[in-house]
Write a structure and sequence with these properties.
Blueprint (H helix, E strand, L loop, with lengths): L2 H29 L5 H20 L3 H19 L4 H19 L6 H22 L4 H30 L6 H16 L1 H53 L6 H7 L14 H24 L5 E4 L2 E4 L12 H10 L5 H18 L9 H11 L6 H13 L6 H17 L1
Antiparallel strand pairs: 1-2
Length: about 425
């Protein structure tokens, strides 16, 4: 499997996982359907089958006929009752999304933006799932963990693909991340975390009790005196209230509200409304995802992509930095050099110097024209090319040299 197809497969599995989580939650909420693991596996097969048909470049009519036939056949074989029609809608929707996104180029920034929005949706869905019962939460818990693993591995591999950084330890690191996250999702890990959390609560409660006792010992008598005086004032004011408030009297004389009976809807109409809601939700999701391909066109093996400007804040919270290092592929010296040079590209881009077609040497030469001091710029460019195109290890001295060059250019802009 090529590197490009590997990343596309990771993206497809991530998309299927988050879609399955959302779909299962909606099905449980609207149709009281349980979690169907077969639907997840069938969806994966349908998505990869759609990608295979797309690579064959079939006629559109034959392509649509093949997808319809496979989706309908799979649903009638593996599902029963009303879930057949509902799951056909989901599978066709996933086929359409796959066909729309399959020709889109690998874009690390776009993937990062989509994952950020999907995590917000995941948190909302996770909160909703608690209203659907403990069994449903436990059944979906594994898929939440799977999605987190997939997006971590996806962002690591995408970052390496964009910078053409090959590493013999990348696959091993991805496996370690997957095993670690799965281990944290097991029952024994939950028990350990619950035990530590309980101990932390007990320790906090003990400290809080000591603080409260200390405050009562110091401020108890003055506070008791003030409270007693307030009580006396309230009792005195209540004894002086003789007249009834006219507003309160008018409210007490209001006539009884007439109760109307609500006519229950027929089961057929309820099913129709639920399916309509499903179609509306899927349409909104599709319109949101389809915007990704509006900026790209693929023809005769070439990709034409419009420039997309994104304004980002320079300041980042330490939690974002922690997760950023996880998604960007670790903290090796090679990675640090690439990330630092990427920051240098962003600085020069804001100064209207860097263009996407420039090589590192071209960017260096143009930057020299626009700055007064090009200290360490040559060395930074050489180290970047060395980190990008070689496989031997980089040292901490190399990282420090790139930092000095980056810091020098940053101060001047």
């Amino acid at each position: 499997m090529s590197w490009y197809r590997k990343i596309k497969s990771l993206y497809s599995i991530s998309l299927v996982t988050i879609s399955f989580i959302i779909w299962s939650t909606l099905s449980k909420w609207l149709f009281k359907s349980g979690v169907n693991y077969k639907l997840f596996l069938i969806t994966l097969c349908i998505v990869f089958f759609t990608q295979y048909l797309n690579n064959l470049k079939l006629k559109k009519s034959l392509f649509i006929l093949a997808l319809l036939g496979v989706n309908i056949l799979a649903c009638f074989i593996f599902f029963k009752g009303q879930t057949i029609f509902i799951n056909i809608i989901f599978l066709l929707f996933m086929s359409l999304i796959t066909y729309t996104l399959d020709d889109a180029p690998i874009d690390n920034s776009q993937y990062k933006e989509d994952i950020t929005k999907s995590m917000i949706a995941l948190i909302i869905i996770w909160a909703i799932s608690f209203t659907l019962g403990a069994d449903f939460v436990n059944a979906m818990y594994r898929f939440h963990i799977l999605y987190i693993i997939m997006i971590i591995v996806l962002m690591r591999e995408t970052r390496r693909y964009i910078y053409a950084v090959k590493s013999n330890t990348s696959s091993v690191t991805n496996v370690i991340i997957g095993i670690s996250v799965i281990a944290l999702s097991l029952d024994y890990a939950n028990k350990i975390i619950a035990f530590l959390f309980d101990m932390l609560i007990k320790l906090s409660s003990f400290i809080l009790v000591l603080i409260v006792d200390f405050l009562i010992m110091i401020f108890g008598r003055p506070i008791s005196f003030i409270i007693q005086k307030i009580k006396e004032i309230i009792i005195k004011s209540e004894n002086q209230m003789i007249k009834i408030d006219p507003v309160e009297k008018s409210l007490n004389n209001q006539p009884n509200i007439i109760k109307y009976k609500v006519h229950n809807l027929s089961p057929e109409l309820l099913i129709f409304l639920k399916i309509l809601i499903i179609f509306i939700i899927l349409y909104l999701i599709y319109k949101f995802l389809s915007r990704i391909t509006k900026n790209t066109k693929v023809y005769n093996g070439f990709v034409e992509e419009k420039e997309r400007m994104i304004n980002k804040k320079n300041k980042r919270h330490w939690v974002k930095n922690l997760f950023g290092n996880m998604f960007k592929g670790g903290g090796s010296n090679r990675d640090k050099i690439l990330y630092m040079y990427s920051a240098f590209e962003k600085i020069t881009e804001k100064a209207n110097i860097y263009k996407t077609y420039m090589t590192a040497t071209q960017l260096k030469n143009v930057t020299k024209i626009n700055v007064d001091n090009a200290y360490n710029l040559d060395e930074m460019t050489e180290l970047y090319n060395e980190a990008k195109f070689s496989l031997h290890p980089m040292t901490q001295e190399n990282v420090d040299s790139v930092k000095r060059g980056h810091s020098n250019i940053k101060k001047q802009f």
